[in-house]
Design goal:
Blueprint lengths: L2 H16 L4 E6 L5 H13 L3 E4 L2 H8 L15 E6 L5 H12 L4 E7 L2 E3 L1 H8 L4 H36 L1
Length: 167
C-alpha cells in the first residue's frame, strides 16, 4: 500500500472533525508531562471537545479549502487540535485555564465561528463565560425587576392591612 493511501484516511478524519465545528483551537503541547496531558484530555472529553494530535502535514492537507486554512501558518512544532461542534468558547476557556496550571501548554491560534483568532484573540475568547453562565446572568437580570415589584406590592398590602386593623 502506498504512503498516500495510508494518509488519506487520516486527512479525511481531520476534515470530518473540523467540518461544521463551532471552534477549532490549535495548541502547542510541547513540554507537557504524560500526567498533565491525561488530565487535560479528560477535562476536554468531559466537555464534549475532541482533542487530538495529528501531523502538521496532515492538518495542512485537511485544512485546504476550509475556514481553518488560516491556521496553516502556525503548523510548526508539536501541535494538537481541540474542536467543539457545540460551544464556541469552551475549548479556549478550558485550555487557557489549564495553561495557568501547566505553563508549557501554549495557545497558538483558533478559528471560531469562521473567524481567525491569533494567540491574543484566543485568550480573549477564554475570558467569555460559558453559555449557561451567560443565560443565568440574563435570567437573573430579568427576574430582578419583577422580584422588586413583587416586594413593593407586598409591602403596600401589608401596610394597608395594618391600617385597616387599626381602624
Amino acid at each position: 500500500m502506498a504512503k498516500v493511501e495510508l494518509k488519506q484516511p487520516i486527512v479525511a478524519e481531520i476534515a470530518e472533525v473540523i467540518k461544521d465545528a463551532e471552534s477549532v483551537v490549535l495548541v502547542n503541547y510541547s513540554g507537557l508531562t504524560v500526567e498533565q496531558d491525561t488530565v487535560l484530555r479528560r477535562e476536554l472529553r468531559e466537555a464534549g471537545i475532541v482533542y487530538k494530535v495529528y501531523k502538521n502535514t496532515m492538518m495542512r492537507r485537511a485544512f485546504e479549502g476550509t475556514v481553518c486554512e488560516s491556521l496553516d501558518k502556525h503548523l510548526e512544532g508539536t501541535n494538537a487540535l481541540a474542536v467543539s461542534k457545540t460551544d464556541a468558547t469552551a475549548p479556549a476557556r478550558i485550555l487557557a485555564n489549564f495553561a495557568k496550571k501547566a505553563p508549557k501548554l501554549e495557545l497558538v491560534a483558533a478559528v471560531v465561528e469562521g473567524n481567525y483568532n491569533d494567540t491574543e484573540g484566543v485568550k480573549a475568547l477564554a475570558e467569555i463565560p460559558s453559555r449557561e453562565v451567560l443565560l443565568g446572568r440574563l435570567f437573573g437580570s430579568m427576574q430582578s425587576p419583577v422580584a422588586n415589584f413583587a416586594r413593593v406590592i407586598k409591602q403596600i398590602a401589608e401596610k394597608d392591612g395594618e391600617a385597616a386593623a387599626a381602624e
